């Protein structure tokens, strides 16, 4: 976690679903990875986000080990179903994907 201009920013890095992430508090912006088999799947990532409730979350690092992509739209739907406290922002981190 880093603090910039008074904002608390969490960058998950390559992590699995860990208790320390779920216990985070007062996060303004979070970047959460989800690429199997290396990190969390979208279900784990969405569950973790709904626990620590950042104000804004950007799913990133979502190209899977086999070259497919995690379904970030489904991730967004799962987060939105459980909480209105977090805004999910989708960015095309992989322009070649289209």
List keywords for this structure.
alpha/beta; 5 strands; Metallo-beta-lactamase, Chain A; 3 helices; 98 residues
Quick one: CATH superfamily? Ribonuclease Z/Hydroxyacylglutathione hydrolase-like
- Rg over C-alpha atoms, rounded to the nearest angstrom: 13 Å
Largest sheet, if any? 5 strands, mixed
Shape: globular
Q: Approximately what portion of the residues adopt beta-strand conformation?
A: 15-25%
Number of folding domains? 1
Protein topology:
Elements: E1 2-4, E2 7-11, H1 19-22, E3 29-33, H2 42-52, E4 56-60, H3 72-82, E5 87-88
Helix pairs in contact: 2-3
How does this structure look, described?
With 98 residues, the chain is an alpha/beta fold. The chain has one domain: Metallo-beta-lactamase, Chain A (4-Layer Sandwich), CATH 3.60.15.10. Helix content is 27%, strand content 20%. Strand 2 (7-11), helix 1 and strand 3 (29-33) form a beta-alpha-beta unit. Helix 2 (42-52) packs parallel to helix 3 (72-82). The radius of gyration is 13 Å and the shape is globular.
Outline of the structure:
By secondary structure, the chain is α/β, with parallel strands linked by helices.
């Amino acid at each position: 976690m880093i603090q910039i201009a008074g904002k608390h920013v969490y960058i998950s890095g390559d992590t699995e679903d860990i208790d320390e992430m779920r216990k985070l508090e007062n996060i303004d912006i979070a970047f959460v990875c989800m690429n199997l088999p290396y990190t969390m799947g979208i279900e784990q990532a969405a569950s973790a986000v709904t626990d620590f409730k950042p104000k804004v979350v950007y799913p990133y690092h979502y190209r899977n080990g086999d070259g497919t992509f995690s379904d970030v739209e489904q991730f967004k739907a799962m987060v939105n179903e459980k909480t209105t406290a977090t805004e999910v922002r989708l960015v095309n981190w992989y322009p070649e994907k289209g």
